[in-house]
C-alpha cells in the first residue's frame, strides 16, 4: 500500500525528533553527572590538575591558550534564535492552517527544545573531550534539523497548501534552515583538547583539532606555513606521533595477536579498527560515487522542461545545490578513506612489522654457520680434487636461498622490502570488494539498457580473455618472486663489498667486484624487465578487454535493433568505462596480494624461527657438569655433524681470576659463548648466576658502595664491537657518569694518552665498528666498557692479542687484577698464559674439543702435560716483566687514517682524563657527518641526468609522439562514435549528456561538443558495418599504441636504472678511503636498495602517467576554447587556485619526502649494528635499551611518512572542494542563463567535472614524480663524489720484476689544509730485502703504507718501484702488483676456494699448497690431506664442520668447497688471519707489506707462521716490508727503518744500527727484555731463517 506524501512528511518529522532525542541523551547524562555531589567534589579537587592522556600531557601555557567559549556562546545564541523561529513557524501554521503541516511544525519546536538541553550541557560539562563528543552529537542533530524540513518541503511543496508559499513562511523557513546549518558547523568546530606534549614536542593535532579541522585536514596548515617561511623542515620540526601509531604500542599489539594467530590473521586482529573503517568507507563510497551523476540528471531533466508549463525553477536550483553538497560529501568520504588506509592501516602495519622483526632479532638464536660442504671424500689426484671441489661448490649454490635468509642483510631486507609490499597491499586491498560491487552495479544497468543478449555477447569476450589474463598474472607473480630473491642476493653482495671495501681497494679488485655486483644486478634487472613485460601484457589485456567488450555488445545491439542511438551508445560506453577500471584493478590487486603473501611468508618464517632459550641453571657461580656445548643452529642437526665441546667439567671460582688457554680453534670462544647463553647445550648442566632485569638494577641510583652487581655479566668480544657514538658514550654504555670511576677506568685501560692525542678527547665521535680507531684502541675501549659496568662477572675473549707487551702488562696489573678487577669473577681467554699465570686462581686448557687440563694454577704446575705450556710462557713472562721495568717497548697500536689526522692536526689537552670539567670545550666534530639533504625543488640537472641515462633525444621524441598519438586516437574514437550516433533521436540526448559526464576522461571531450551541435548525418544506420569497423579498428590501434607507450617508457626506465647503478657502483668502489670510512654503510646501502627499488619499479610508470595527464589537461583546455568564454574564465580562476594550493603543498611535501628518505637509513644502520653486536648487547642485558632506540628511529620515519601523506590529503581535499565549487557555479550559471539549453548545459557541466579531475590528476602525478625523483637525486649525489685518480701510464707487463723500492724526500698529508705526516722520508729497499719498520704511535708507519699504495698522494718527493715513479702509473696497476696483509682479516661469504682465488686464476694444487704452508692443513706421507685436526689452528670453532663418532672434529680446510659465512664468522679470528696469509701466498707478489697479522693466534702457531713468512717471502722471492710490533719479529731482517715524527731517524742493517752510539734502535734493543737473545741473533752471524732451514733438515 502506497504511503501518501502527507504521511511521509509526518514520518520524517517524527523520525527526526527521535534521532535528535537520542543524540541529546549524552547531554542529559552530562548535566545529571555534573550536578551530583560526588562530581562537584571531584571538580574542586581537580582544578589544578593539567590535562593528560595516552598521547601526552598539556602544559599550563597550552591549557591557557585552549578555549571554546566563543563556539559555545554562539551555539547557545543560535539555539535561542532557532527555537523562536520554529515557534513562529508553528504559530503561523496553527493560525493560518493548514492542518496537514501543523504536527510537523510543532515537532520542529520539540527538536529545538532538545537543542536547548544540548546547549546547556556544553556550558556545564568541564571536560573538553566530553564537550567535543557533545559537539559531535550536536552536529548530527543539527544536520537532522536541516534535513527534516527540506524533506517535508519536497514532499508537500508541489501539492501542499498554497499558504506554505507566502513570503513570511519562506523567510522564516530559510532562517530556520540557515540557523540550524550554522549551528551544525559551530558544533563541529569545538576543539577536542588542549595541545599536549611528549618529550618536549607538541603531539600531532589530529586528535586535538575539531571535527571540521580533522575532516578538512586543517590541523596541518601551521606546519605548511612554517615550511614555507623556514624554507625547509627537519625531523625535529615535525610533531610527535599520537599513541596509536608509536612503534612500541604497535609491536605490543601485533605480538599479542601473533600469540594465537597466524601472522596474516594477527595483522588483521591488531589493526581491526582501521581495517573495519577502511572497508566501511569503501562500501559507502561505492554508493556515493553515483550521487553527482544523479544530481546532474536532475538538473538536465529540469532544464529539458524549461519553457514549458511544468518547469519549476525551484527544482532546478534544488538540484544545483544538491550537486555541490553531494560532491563535497563524496569528496569528504573519499579523502577520509585515503587518510584511513595509510594512517590507520598501511603505516601501522609496516611500522609494526619493523618493530616486531627487530624485537625478534634481539631474541633470536645468533646463528653464524653456513651449510656444511656436501663433499666428504678426499680426492686421489689434483684433477679429481678440482672436479670434486667444483661439484661441491655447485651443490652449495643450490642452497643459496636458505643461506641468504640467515644473513644479516636478508634480515634487514624483511624490513626494507617485504614489510613495504605488505604495506602497499594492505593499503589498497579495499579496492577488490569495491571493484566487485561496481562490476555488479554496472552489469545491472547494462542488462536493462542493452538487453541480456547483447551483454552476454560482450561478456563472452571476457570469458575468452580471462584465461590469458590468469596466465599472465601467474607469470607476473612468479617473476616478482624471482625479483625478490635476486634483490636479496644483490643486497648481500653489495653489503659484503662495503664491509670489505678496504681489502678490495688494497688488492685493486674494484673492477672484479664491480663486475660481480653488475652480474647480479643484471640478473635482477632481467627479472624486473620480465615483470615489466608481463605487466605490459596485462595492461594490453585490460585495455583491449573492455574496448572489445563494448564493441561486441554495441554491434550485437545494433544488429538486433537495426541501429544505435546516442543515449544507448554513450551510456553503455560510460558503464563499460566503469567496467574497464574495475577489471583493471582486480587483476593488479590480486597480483599485489600474491606478492604480499610471499613477503608475509618470509617474515612469518623469520618470526617463527628458534629463539635464544635459557640454557643455564641459576647458581651462585659459573660451573659446567658433564656438559657438551655446540654453536647454535636454527634447524635440527645431528650432533655428530657439529663442532662440539664435550665432557666439560669446570667450576670457576666466584670473584676469582680464571684463564682459558688452548690452541687456535680449540673451542675457547665457544666455551665463553656458552656461559653467555649463546650456545646449544647438548648434554649435562651449565650453571650461571642470573642477572637482575635492567629495570630492576636502578642504575641511576647506583653509588660506589653498591655499584657491583655480583650476578650481572659484561662481555668483551674477540672482535670488539664499537658503536657510532663518542668514546665516552661507548664506555658508559647507558650508565650514569661517575667521574672518579670513569677516570680510574681510563687509567686502567691505558686510554689517557690516546685521549690526549684525539682532537675532542673522550667526546671524539667514533665511526661505525670503530673504523677510526686502531685495533688496540678498539679492544681497550671495549674492555673499558666492561670494566666501568656494574657487572660482577667479566667474560673476556682474547684481550691481549692486539696489545703490545707494555700495554698488556698495564691492563693486567691495573685492570684485570687491579682495583677495578678484584672482587669480580673474571674469566679470560688468552694466549698470554705466562703474563696471567702468577695471579691466576683457575686455569683451563682446551685441546681438540675437550678440556685437557683444568684446576688450580698452582696444582697444574706440577703436571707433566702442562710443563710445555709453562716453559713456553715463562720466557714471555720474563720479557714482559723486564719491559714493564724499563717502560720502553714498541707500541704495536698503529694508527689508522683518521687517528693520524687527529694526532697531526688537532692535538689538545684532554680535560676528561684529569677531571670531568666539560665547560669551555668546543662542540666535538662528528666523524660521521649528518646525511646531506637537498632543499627546494628537484634541480633540472637531476632530470637531465635521468633522461640522459635512459636514452638519446631522438628516442624521447619518439616516446612523446607515442603519447600524443594515444590521446589523439582516444579523442578520434570518441568523435567517431559521436558521428555514428549524431542522427539519433533528440529524445535520448539528456541521457546521452549524463553518460558523457560519467565517461572516462578521454571519451567525451569533442564527442559532447559535436552532440551539442546536433549535426545530422544521413544514412548512418545503413552504414553499420562501416561505423563498427572503423570503431573496432581505432580501438585496436589504441590498444597497440597504449601498450607500446608502456613498453618503451619501461624499457627506458630499465636502461636508466642500469646506468645509474653502474655509475654509483663505480664511484663507491673508487671512492677515497676517508669518504668510505665516514659515510655509514646503511646510507650507501639505502641508495643501492630502497632508492633503486623506487627507480626500478615506479619511476618509469610515474613518468608515463605524468606525461599522459599533462596531455589530458591540454586536450581539455583545447575543448574548453569551444565553450562560452564565461566558463573559461571560471576555468582559469580554478587553475590559479589549484596552482596556489599545489605550490604550497610542494613546499612542505618535497622537504618531508627527503626527510622520509633520510629517515630510512638510520633504521637499517641500527638494525645492522645491533645484529653485529648482538652477543655484547645480550650479555650486558641491554636488549630493552636497543629496542627503545629502534622505536625512536622507526617513529622518526613514521613521522616523516605521516606528514608526507597528510600533506597529500590536504592538497587532494582542497582540489576536490574547488572542483565541487566550480561544478556548482557552472551549474548555477547554466540554470540562470535562459539561452543555454539542455545540450549545452550537459557539455558545460561534464567539462566542469572533467576539468577538475584532469587538473588535480596532472598536479598529483607531477608531485609524485618530483617526490620519486628524490631517489635519483640521492643516487646521483653519491655518483658524483670525488673519486681517486684513475689516470696514469700503464705499468710494464711483468712489473715489478725486482721489487726494489726507493723513497725520496717523501712529504705526505691527509688533506691540503692539514700539516704533513711524512716529512722528507727517504730510504731504499733493495731487491728481495726484508725491511722492518719500527716506531712509536704516530711515527707515520701507517702513513707510509697508505702512501706506498697511493691512498695518500705525495705533496713532494717520489716513491720508485723498480725505477718507476708510482705516482705516474695507474692506481690499479700499482695496487694489483703489491700485496698487504692487514691486521684485521677480511673474508667474504662463499667457499675457501672463492676466498683464496675469487676469480679462478689458480689451480687447486696451488691453493692446497698455500693452505699447507700456513699450517691450516697437513698431508700424509702419500700426499693425501689429513681431514682431522692434528695440526695447529685447524679446528672449526663455529658452524657445522662434521665430527667423527670418537668426538674428533673434522678440518674444515680439507675441502676447498667448505663454506665461509658472511664476514668469515664461522672461523675463529686466528683462522681468518691464516686464511688471509694463504691468500697472499697464492698471489706471490714481488713487494709485500705485512702489518703483523698473527696477533690472534697461539704462540706455537705464531712461530710456525713466522717460519712460513720467512720461507715464502724470504730471500730471492719477495721484498718484504713489515710494520713491527715486537723487535724479535724483525731483528734478523736485512734492514731496519726507525721512524719518528714522519722522518727516518735511522736506517740500516741491525748490526749497523747497533753500532750507533746512543742510537734509537740500539736503545730499544738494550732496554728490551729479550736483549741477550736479540744480540745473539744480530752479532752471532746466524739468522733465524738459517735456523729454520736447519730445523727443517
TrEMBL record:
Residues 622-873, 1301-1566 form the ABC transporter domain. Keywords: ATP-binding, Membrane, Nucleotide-binding, Transmembrane, Transmembrane helix, Transport. Residues 318-595, 957-1267 form the ABC transmembrane type-1 domain. It is found in: Membrane. Signal peptide: none annotated. SUPFAM superfamilies: ABC transporter transmembrane region, P-loop containing nucleoside triphosphate hydrolases. The keyword rRNA-binding does not apply. Residues 367-410, 901-930 are annotated as: Disordered. The keyword Protein transport does not apply. PROSITE patterns: ABC_TM1F, ABC_TRANSPORTER_1, ABC_TRANSPORTER_2. Its main location: membrane. The chain crosses the membrane at residues 12-32, 73-93, 105-124, 136-157, 169-190, 211-228, 279-299, 311-330, 455-472, 531-552, 558-579, 953-976, 1024-1048, 1113-1143, 1215-1234, 1240-1259. It is a multi-pass membrane protein. SMART domains: AAA. Belongs to the ABC transporter superfamily. ABCC family. Conjugate transporter (TC 3.A.1.208) subfamily. This is ABC transporter. It comes from Paecilomyces lecythidis.
Amino acid at each position: 500500500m502506497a504511503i501518501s506524501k502527507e504521511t511521509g512528511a509526518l514520518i520524517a518529522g517524527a523520525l527526526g525528533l527521535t534521532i535528535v532525542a537520542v543524540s541529546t541523551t549524552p547531554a542529559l547524562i552530562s548535566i545529571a553527572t555534573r550536578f551530583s555531589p560526588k562530581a562537584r567534589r571531584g571538580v574542586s579537587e581537580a582544578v589544578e590538575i593539567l590535562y593528560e592522556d595516552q598521547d601526552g600531557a598539556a602544559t599550563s601555557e597550552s591549557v591557557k591558550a585552549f578555549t571554546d567559549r566563543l563556539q559555545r556562546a554562539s551555539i547557545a545564541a543560535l539555539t535561542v534564535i532557532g527555537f523562536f523561529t520554529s515557534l513562529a513557524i508553528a504559530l503561523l501554521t496553527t493560525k493560518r492552517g493548514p492542518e496537514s503541516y501543523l504536527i510537523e511544525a510543532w515537532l520542529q519546536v520539540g527538536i529545538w527544545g532538545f537543542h536547548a538541553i544540548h546547549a546547556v550541557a556544553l556550558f556545564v560539562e568541564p571536560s573538553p573531550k566530553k564537550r567535543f563528543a557533545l559537539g559531535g552529537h550536536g552536529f548530527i542533530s543539527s544536520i537532522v534539523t536541516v534535513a527534516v524540513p527540506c524533506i517535508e518541503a519536497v514532499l508537500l511543496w508541489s501539492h501542499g497548501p498554497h499558504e506554505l508559499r507566502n513570503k513570511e513562511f519562506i523567510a522564516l523557513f530559510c532562517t530556520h534552515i540557515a540557523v540550524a546549518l550554522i549551528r551544525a558547523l559551530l558544533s563541529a568546530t569545538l576543539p577536542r583538547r588542549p595541545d599536549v606534549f611528549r618529550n618536549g614536542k607538541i603531539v600531532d593535532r589530529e586528535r586535538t583539532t575539531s571535527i571540521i579541522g580533522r575532516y578538512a585536514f586543517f590541523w596541518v596548515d601551521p606546519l605548511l606555513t612554517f615550511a614555507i617561511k623556514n624554507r625547509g623542515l627537519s625531523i625535529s620540526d615535525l610533531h610527535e606521533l599520537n599513541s596509536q601509531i608509536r612503534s612500541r604500542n604497535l609491536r605490543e599489539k601485533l605480538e599479542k595477536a601473533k600469540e594465537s594467530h597466524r601472522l596474516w590473521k594477527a595483522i588483521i586482529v591488531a589493526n581491526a579498527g582501521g581495517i573495519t573503517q577502511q572497508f566501511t568507507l569503501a562500501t559507502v563510497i561505492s554508493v556515493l560515487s553515483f550521487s553527482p551523476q544523479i544530481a546532474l540528471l536532475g538538473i538536465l531533466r529540469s532544464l529539458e522542461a524549461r519553457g514549458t508549463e511544468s518547469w519549476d525553477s525551484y527544482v532546478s536550483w534544488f538540484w544545483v545545490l544538491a550537486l555541490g553538497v553531494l560532491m563535497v560529501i563524496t569528496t569528504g568520504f573519499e579523502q577520509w578513506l585515503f587518510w584511513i588506509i595509510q594512517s590507520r592501516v598501511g603505516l601501522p602495519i609496516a611500522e609494526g612489522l619493523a618493530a616486531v622483526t627487530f624485537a625478534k632479532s634481539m631474541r633470536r638464536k645468533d646463528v653464524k654457520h653456513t651449510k656444511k660442504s656436501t663433499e666428504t671424500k678426499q680426492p686421489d689426484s689434483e684433477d679429481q680434487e678440482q672436479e670434486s671441489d667444483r661439484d661441491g661448490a655447485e651443490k652449495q649454490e643450490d642452497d643459496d636461498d636458505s643461506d641468504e635468509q640467515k644473513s644479516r642483510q636478508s634480515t634487514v631486507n624483511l624490513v626494507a622490502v617485504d614489510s613495504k609490499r605488505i604495506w602497499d597491499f594492505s593499503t589498497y586491498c579495499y579496492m577488490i570488494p569495491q571493484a566487485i560491487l561496481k562490476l555488479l552495479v554496472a552489469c545491472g544497468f547494462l542488462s536493462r539498457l542493452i538487453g541480456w543478449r547483447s551483454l552476454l555477447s560482450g561478456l563472452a569476450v571476457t570469458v575468452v580473455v580471462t584465461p590469458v589474463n590468469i596466465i599472465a598474472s601467474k607469470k607476473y607473480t612468479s617473476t616478482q618472486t624471482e625479483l625478490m630473491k635476486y634483490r636479496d642476493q644483490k643486497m648481500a653482495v653489495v653489503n659484503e663489498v662495503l664491509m670489505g671495501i678496504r681489502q678490495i681497494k688494497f688488492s685493486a679488485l674494484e673492477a672484479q667486484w664491480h663486475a660481480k655486483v653488475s652480474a647480479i644486478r643484471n640478473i635482477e634487472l632481467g627479472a624486473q624487465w620480465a615483470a615489466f613485460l608481463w605487466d605490459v601484457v596485462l595492461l594490453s589485456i585490460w585495455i583491449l578487454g573492455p574496448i572489445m567488450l563494448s564493441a561486441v555488445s554495441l554491434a550485437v545491439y545494433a544488429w538486433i535493433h537495426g541501429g544505435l542511438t546516442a543515449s544507448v551508445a554513450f551510456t553503455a560506453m560510460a558503464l563499460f568505462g566503469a567496467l574497464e577500471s574495475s577489471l583493471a584493478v582486480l587483476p593488479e590487486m590480486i597480483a599485489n596480494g600474491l606478492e604480499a603473501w610471499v613477503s608475509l611468508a618470509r617474515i612469518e618464517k623469520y618470526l617463527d624461527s628458534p629463539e635464544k632459550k635459557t640454557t643455564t641453571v641459576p647458581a651462585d657461580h659459573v660451573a659446567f657438569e658433564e656438559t657438551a656445548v655446540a654453536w647454535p643452529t636454527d634447524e635440527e642437526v645431528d650432533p655428530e655433524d657439529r663442532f662440539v665441546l664435550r665432557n666439560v667439567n669446570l667450576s670457576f671460582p666466584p670473584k676469582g681470576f680464571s684463564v682459558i688457554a688452548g690452541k687456535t680453534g680449540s673451542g675457547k670462544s665457544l666455551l665463553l659463548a656458552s656461559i653467555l647463553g649463546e650456545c646449544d647445550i647438548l648434554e649435562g648442566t651449565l650453571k650461571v648466576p642470573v642477572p637482575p632485569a635492567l629495570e630492576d638494577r636502578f642504575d641511576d641510583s647506583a653509588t660506589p658502595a653498591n655499584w657491583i652487581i655480583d650476578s650481572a655479566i659484561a662481555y668483551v668480544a674477540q672482535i670488539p664491537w664499537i658503536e657510532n657514538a663518542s668514546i665516552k658514550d661507548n664506555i658508559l654504555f647507558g650508565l650514569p657518569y661517575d667521574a672518579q670511576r670513569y677516570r680510574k677506568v681510563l687509567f686502567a685501560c691505558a686510554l689517557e694518552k690516546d685521549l690526549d692525542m684525539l682532537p675532542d678527547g673522550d667526546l671524539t665521535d667514533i665511526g661505525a665498528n670503530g673504523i677510526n680507531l686502531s685495533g688496540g684502541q678498539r679492544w681497550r675501549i671495549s674492555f673499558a666498557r666492561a670494566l666501568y659496568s656494574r657487572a660482577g662477572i667479566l667474560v673476556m675473549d682474547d684481550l691481549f692479542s692486539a696489545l703490545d707487551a707494555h700495554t698488556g702488562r698495564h691492563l693486567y696489573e691495573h685492570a684485570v687484577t687491579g682495583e677495578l678487577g678484584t672482587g669480580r669473577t673474571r674469566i679470560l681467554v688468552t694466549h698470554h698464559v705466562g703474563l696471567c699465570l702468577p695471579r691466576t686462581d683457575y686455569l683451563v686448557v682446551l685441546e681438540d674439543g675437550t678440556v685437557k687440563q683444568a684446576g688450580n694454577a698452582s696444582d697444574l704446575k706440577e703436571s707433566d702435560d702442562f710443563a710445555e705450556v709453562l716453559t713456553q710462557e715463562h720466557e714471555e713472562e720474563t720479557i714482559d716483566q723486564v719491559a714493564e721495568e724499563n717502560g720502553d717497548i714498541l707500541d704495536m697500536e698503529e694508527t689508522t687514517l683518521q687517528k693520524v689526522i687527529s694526532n697531526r692536526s688537532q692535538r689538545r689537552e684532554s680535560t676528561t682524563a684529569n677531571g670531568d670539567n666539560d665547560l669551555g670545550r668546543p662542540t666535538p666534530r662528528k666523524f660521521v657527518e649528518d646525511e646531506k639533504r637537498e632543499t627546494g625543488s628537484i634541480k633540472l640537472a637531476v632530470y637531465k641526468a635521468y633522461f640522459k641515462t635512459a636514452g638519446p633525444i631522438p628516442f624521447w621524441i619518439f616516446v612523446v609522439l607515442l603519447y600524443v598519438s594515444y590521446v589523439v586516437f582516444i579523442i578520434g574514437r570518441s568523435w567517431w562514435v559521436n558521428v555514428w550516433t549524431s542522427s539519433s533521436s533528440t529524445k535520448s540526448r539528456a541521457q546521452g549528456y549524463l553518460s558523457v559526464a560519467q565517461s572516462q576522461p578521454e571519451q567525451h571531450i569533442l564527442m559532447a561538443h559535436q552532440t551539442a551541435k546536433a549535426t545530422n548525418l544521413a544514412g548512418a544506420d545503413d552504414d553499420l558495418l562501416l561505423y563498427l569497423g572503423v570503431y573496432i579498428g581505432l580501438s585496436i590501434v589504441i590498444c597497440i599504441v597504449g601498450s607500446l607507450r608502456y613498453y618503451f617508457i619501461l624499457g627506458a626506465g630499465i636502461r636508466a636504472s642500469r646506468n645509474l647503478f653502474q655509475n654509483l657502483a663505480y664511484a663507491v668502489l673508487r671512492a677515497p678511503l676517508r669518504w668510505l670510512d665516514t659515510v655509514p654503510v646503511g646510507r650507501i646501502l639505502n641508495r643501492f636498495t630502497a632508492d633503486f627499488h623506487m627507480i626500478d619499479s615506479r619511476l618509469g610508470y610515474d613518468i608515463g602517467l605524468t606525461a599522459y595527464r599533462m596531455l589530458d589537461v591540454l586536450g581539455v583546455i583545447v575543448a574548453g576554447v569551444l565553450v562560452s568564454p564565461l566558463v573559461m574564465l571560471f576555468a582559469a580562476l580554478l587553475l590559479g587556485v589549484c596552482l596556489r594550493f599545489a605550490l604550497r603543498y610542494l613546499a612542505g611535501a618535497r622537504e618531508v619526502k627527503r626527510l622520509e628518505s633520510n629517515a630510512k637509513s638510520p633504521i637499517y644502520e641500527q638494525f645492522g649494528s645491533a645484529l653485529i653486536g648482538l652477543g655484547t648487547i645480550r650479555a650486558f642485558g641491554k636488549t630493552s635499551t636497543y629496542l627503545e632506540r629502534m622505536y625512536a628511529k622507526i617513529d622518526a620515519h613514521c613521522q616523516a611518512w605521516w606528514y608526507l601523506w597528510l600533506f597529500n590529503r590536504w592538497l587532494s581535499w582542497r582540489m576536490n572542494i574547488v572542483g565541487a565549487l566550480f561544478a556548482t557555479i557552472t551549474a548555477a550559471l547554466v540554470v540562470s542563463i535562459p539561452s543555454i539549453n539542455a545540450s549545452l548545459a550537459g557539455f558545460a557541466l561534464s567539462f566542469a567535472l572533467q576539468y577538475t579531475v584532469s587538473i588535480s590528476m596532472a598536479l598529483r602525478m607531477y608531485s609524485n614524480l618530483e617526490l620519486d625523483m628524490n631517489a635519483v637525486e640521492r643516487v646521483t649525489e653519491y655518483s658524483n663524489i670525488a673519486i681517486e685518480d684513475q689516470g696514469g701510464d700503464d705499468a710494464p707487463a711483468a712489473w715489478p720484476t725486482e721489487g726494489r723500492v726507493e723513497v725520496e724526500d717523501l712529504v705526505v698529508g691527509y688533506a691540503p689544509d692539514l700539516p704533513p705526516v711524512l716529512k722528507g722520508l727517504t730510504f731504499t729497499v733493495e731487491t728481495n730485502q726484508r725491511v722492518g719498520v719500527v716506531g712509536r704511535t704516530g711515527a707515520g708507519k701507517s702513513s707510509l703504507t697508505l702512501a706506498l699504495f697511493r691512498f695518500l698522494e705525495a705533496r713532494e718527493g717520489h716513491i720508485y718501484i723498480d725505477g718507476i715513479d708510482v705516482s705516474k702509473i695507474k692506481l690499479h696497476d700499482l695496487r694489483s702488483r703489491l700485496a698487504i696483509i692487514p691486521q684485521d682479516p677480511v673474508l667474504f661469504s662463499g667457499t675457501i676456494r672463492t676466498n683464496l682465488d675469487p676469480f679462478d686464476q689458480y689451480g687447486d694444487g696451488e691453493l692446497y699448497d698455500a693452505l699447507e704452508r700456513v699450517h691450516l692443513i697437513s698431508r700424509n706421507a702419500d700426499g693425501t690431506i689429513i681431514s682431522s685436526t692434528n695440526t695447529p689452528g685447524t679446528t672449526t670453532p663455529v658452524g657445522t664442520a662434521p665430527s667423527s663418532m670418537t668426538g674428533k672434529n673434522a678440518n674444515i680446510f680439507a675441502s676447498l668447497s667448505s663454506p665461509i659465512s658472511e664476514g668469515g664468522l664461522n672461523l675463529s679470528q686466528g683462522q681468518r688471519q691464516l686464511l688471509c696469509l694463504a691468500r697472499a701466498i697464492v698471489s706471490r707478489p714481488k713487494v709485500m707489506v705485512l702489518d703483523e697479522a698473527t696477533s690472534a693466534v697461539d704462540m706455537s702457531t705464531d712461530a710456525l707462521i713466522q717460519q712460513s713468512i720467512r720461507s715464502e717471502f724470504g730471500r730471492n722471492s719477495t721484498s718484504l716490508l713489515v710494520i713491527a710490533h715486537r723487535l724479535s719479529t724483525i731483528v734478523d731482517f736485512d734492514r731496519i727503518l726507525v721512524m719518528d715524527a714522519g722522518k727516518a731517524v735511522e736506517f740500516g742493517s741491525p748490526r749497523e744500527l747497533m753500532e750507533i752510539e746512543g742510537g734509537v734502535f740500539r736503545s730499544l734493543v738494550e732496554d728490551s727484555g729479550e736483549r741477550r737473545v736479540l744480540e745473539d741473533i744480530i752479532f752471532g752471524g746466524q739468522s733465524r731463517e738459517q735456523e729454520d732451514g736447519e730445523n727443517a733438515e
